[in-house]
Structure formats: C-alpha cells, structure tokens
C-alpha cells in the first residue's frame, strides 16, 4: 500500500461528461488531469475540480503529503475569459506555497483573450517571500491557439509618448517583461518574448492545426517528433534580428535603427525577439569595429518604438508572445504559453525628443550603454544565399542540436569537395543561437534538408562577393558569353591563371568577367583568388 501511495497517476478524458462527481472522488490522488471536449463544463465545475486536485492530498502512513498535482489541463473546452479567471483564482486560493511544487496549467484551444489574471498572480508571487517567488517560477501556463482574437488595454500607459508619428512604449509597461525581469534566472522553464503589430490577421499561434502534443487526447500518441514539429512552427514564426554573430556582408546593409522598432502599418505575422545583453554588447562592438557595414545607431534598449503611426489614430495594437522553452517531455512543458494582444491608447503629441527627428518618423539616435535588459528587433526577410562548410559540421532535423536530431556529419573536405547549401530560412535554438535552415546543393547530392550552424568560423559564402585581379582555376571550368552561362567560348584547365575585369552578381551566385569578356563561375570550390 505504501508503494501505491507513492505512485503518480495522470488521466486523459476526451469524452463529454455531464456529472463530474466521480472525478472528484479520485482527484486528490491524481498527479495530472487533462479534461477535453467538455461542452457542459462551467466555472463552478472548474473551481470544484481544481480545488479537489489541490487540497486534501493523499498521505503516507506518517500523515505526510506524498504527491502534489503537476498538471491541470482544461484545454479544448470552448471556455472564455470568466472561466479562465475562475481557474487562476482557484489555483491562487489553494496553492500550498511551502511545498514549492511545480504546477503547469493548461488552457489551450479555448476562447481566452485576457490573460491578465495569470499575469497579476505571477507578479504578486514574485514580489513576496522566497517560497512565493519559487512557486511563481514553477507556475507555468500553456494556453496557445485560442479560437478568438481579442485585445485588452495595456495596464500601464503612463510613459507612452507620441512625437510626430512615432510612438514610444517602455518595455516595462508590458506585464510579460515585468515578470521576466523579476523571475528567478534559474527558473525551471525559461521564457522568450516576441512582439508584432496586430491588425487582426491570424498567425501561427492562432491556427489549431499547428497544435501537436500538449492537447493530445492520448499521451501514448505523443512523441519527440511531435514536440519538435511544434518547435519548428515556433522558430519559423519568429522574426529575425541583426544577428551579432553573422551580420550581412554588404556595405551599409545593417540598419541599427531597426532594433527596438516596429512599423505600425506593416501587416506582418512574424514576431520580433529581443537581443540578449551579451548580443547587444557584441553588436555594438561589431558596429564600432566595422562601421562601414552599418548605418544608424542603436537607440534606447528599454523602449519599443512604433513608427509610421497613421494620423488621427486613437490606438495601436501590439501582440506579445510569451513562450516557455521546452525542458522535458511533459505534455505541458513543450508548448507555447500564450499570445496576448494589448491595445495602446495614443496620447497627444509630446513636445521634445522622444525618439524622432524633426517632424517625421526618423529616430533621433543616441548612444546605448549596456543594460540588464535586452532589446527587440523588427522582423526581417529571409535572405537566401549559398554557403559551404569550411570545417566539420552536422546537419540536424531541428534548430536545437542534439545527437538524436543529427541527420549526418559533413567532414572537413578539400576545397573542391566541400559541401554546399542553399539557405532557405533562419531559426533559433531553444537557447537563442542562430541556425540556417538549408537544402544541400552539392553537385550529386540528394537535396537533403535540415539545420546547420550559422557561425562564420564553420560556414561561409560559397561564392566570392568581391572582385579580384587574378584567379587560379582549381577544377576545369568553362568561359561563357553571358552571365547565365550561355554560349560557351572556352574551357580552362586546372592550374591556369585568369585575369579578371570585374565581379558580377547573378541571383544567388556570382561570376567573374575576364579581361577577354568571358564569364566564369566565382564559386570558391572552382577558383581561387591569387595575387
């Protein structure tokens, strides 16, 4: 009997019930409850079931409580804001803070548009005793893919300012940021915050078809593959920043003023993430060391700038994505937390400088000192390009590199045999490290797809990007009349030295125009710059 008491049981119910009394009889012994597709479920039922799960727990022969509920999940029940508030308030009234137990709340695929009860409770816990702070870190919410798309007013608008048509909003005004700043850095589930303008258009996190493991009716249907598919959707839905590890190699192509900035009229469905303090410092160092590759200056790291606000507008909407990084195979720890849309009232225009220059949207930049916060960035387009590996690298199924996810190794090869890849997307690992999503284009390859590192020490452009005076042929190549390799004029053998007139870009590739007018490939595996 002692062993049975120590066992943990989770149950999944996806068939409609009309009487929840039998469930209440066993609730005190459950470690997890997942209750789905309940058309009769009401606020009173949620309160009663939650209280039964959290109070009067089973004890051992010494009278000690031996287990605590770790998951309470009311997903897929067509529940709204009032039912969600009841759920959170019941948890608040019955959570034993002295146990420091981990508790995950599930409320996915319902109709919630206001997550403030959960945020308010988290903030209250973080401002209190050590036990409460610990409980706040262990209290997580999984509530993505809501079936309604609404908004609530931003709670703190006291520091929101308008200059010209640029609106400035302190990041601290968003409750999610307050929680992230207060949260214990060693929390069990780290979080990532993303931002985008919300004009009512749906995104990845509005489509229930993208839900994978956390609302599965049968735990045995869950798989690491399913979790990874969820991660894919999250990574692909994230906007990009100017990555400090690999900025664009084109002169003046990295606009630093775009960091911390969203365009009020840009209808994007991707989220912009915040640079970490280390990434911000590294980006500043790069800009100082190679200013020719950057334009503008970094602005206030504590402020979100919303440019291009339409004249006469009374408010704008910003959607904030709160994401719990997966840390285990739990059905609720491998999910997105929620997406909350905030309506931000536009105040009367503020006199003085609040991030704009003159009367337009152009920001007035000023130096940025390292801060304990990070900064956000506006989403950027995926720049397709061809790269090759210069050292041993792996190809992985997912952006987070693990032995299980590795598809194959590419060993370091001689120059003419190095593998080539087409970059078709970007993603970040669960720790925020940039990855390239690629398709292999090595001659004779099978077109494998996956993720590789984006570190310049391991991968580089497969074609020269700058001109040369002379090149050496590494492998026989042809000279053509046009950049599209039409009209063969000559064949050049290995070891020949050719004189170059200029470099010509050709879609994702590049050509060298020789002094005789012919065009040859500028692929690094075929030619080598020489003096």
UniProtKB/TrEMBL annotation:
Pfam families registered for this protein in UniProt: DUF5776 (PF19087)
InterPro entries found in the cross-reference section: DUF5776
Protein name listed in UniProt: DUF5776 domain-containing protein
Segments forming domain DUF5776: 463-527
Residue ranges, annotated region (Disordered): 349-376
Biased composition (Polar residues): 350-363
Domain of life: Bacteria
């Amino acid at each position: 009997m002692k062993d049975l008491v120590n066992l943990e049981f989770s149950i999944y119910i996806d068939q409609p019930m009309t009487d929840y009394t039998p469930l209440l009889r066993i609730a005190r012994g459950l470690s997890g409850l997942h209750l789905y597709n309940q058309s009769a479920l009401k606020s009173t039922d949620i309160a009663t079931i939650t209280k039964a799960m959290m109070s009067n727990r089973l004890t051992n022969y010494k009278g000690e409580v031996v287990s605590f509920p770790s998951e309470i999940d009311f997903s897929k029940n067509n529940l709204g804001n009032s039912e969600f508030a009841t759920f959170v308030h019941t948890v608040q009234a019955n959570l034993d803070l002295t146990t420091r137990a981990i508790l995950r709340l599930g409320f996915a695929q319902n109709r919630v548009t206001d997550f403030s009860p959960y945020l308010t409770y988290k903030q209250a816990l973080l401002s209190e005793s050590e036990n409460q702070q610990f409980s706040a870190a262990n209290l997580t919410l999984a509530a993505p893919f809501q079936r309604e798309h609404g908004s609530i007013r931003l709670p703190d608008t006291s520091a929101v300012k308008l200059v010209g048509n640029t609106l400035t909003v302190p990041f601290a005004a968003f409750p999610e940021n307050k929680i992230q700043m207060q949260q214990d850095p060693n929390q069990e589930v780290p979080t990532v915050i993303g931002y985008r303008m919300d004009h009512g258009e749906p995104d990845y996190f509005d489509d229930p078809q993208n839900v994978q493991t956390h609302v599965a009716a049968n735990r045995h249907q869950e798989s690491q593959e399913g979790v990874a598919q969820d991660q894919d959707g999250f990574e692909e839905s994230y906007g990009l920043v100017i990555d400090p590890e690999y900025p664009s190699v084109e002169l003046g192509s990295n606009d630093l003023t775009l960091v911390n900035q969203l365009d009020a009229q840009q209808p994007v469905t991707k989220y912009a993430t915040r640079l970490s303090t280390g990434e911000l410092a590294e980006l500043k160092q790069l800009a100082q060391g190679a200013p020719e590759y950057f334009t503008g200056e970094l602005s206030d790291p504590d402020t979100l700038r919303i440019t291009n606000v339409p004249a006469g507008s009374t408010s704008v909407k910003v959607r904030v994505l709160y994401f719990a990084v997966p840390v285990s195979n739990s059905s609720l720890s491998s999910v997105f937390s929620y997406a909350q849309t905030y309506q931000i009232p536009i105040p009367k225009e503020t006199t003085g400088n609040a991030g704009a220059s003159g009367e337009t949207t152009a920001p007035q930049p000023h130096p940025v000192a390292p801060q304990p916060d990070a900064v956000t960035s506006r989403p950027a387009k995926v720049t397709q390009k061809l790269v090759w590996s210069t050292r041993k690298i792996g190809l992985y199924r997912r952006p987070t590199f693990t032995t299980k996810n590795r598809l194959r190794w590419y060993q370091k090869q001689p120059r003419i045999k190095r593998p080539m890849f087409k970059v078709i997307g970007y993603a970040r690992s669960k720790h925020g490290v940039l990855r390239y999503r690629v398709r292999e284009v090595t001659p004779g390859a099978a077109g494998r797809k996956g993720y590789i590192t984006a570190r310049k020490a391991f991968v580089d452009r497969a074609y020269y990007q700058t001109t040369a005076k002379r090149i050496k042929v590494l492998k026989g190549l042809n000279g053509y009349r046009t950049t599209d390799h039409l009209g063969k004029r000559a064949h050049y053998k290995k070891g020949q030295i050719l004189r170059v007139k200029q470099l010509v870009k050709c879609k994702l590739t590049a050509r060298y125009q020789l002094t005789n007018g012919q065009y040859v490939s500028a692929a690094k595996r075929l030619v080598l710059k020489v003096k």
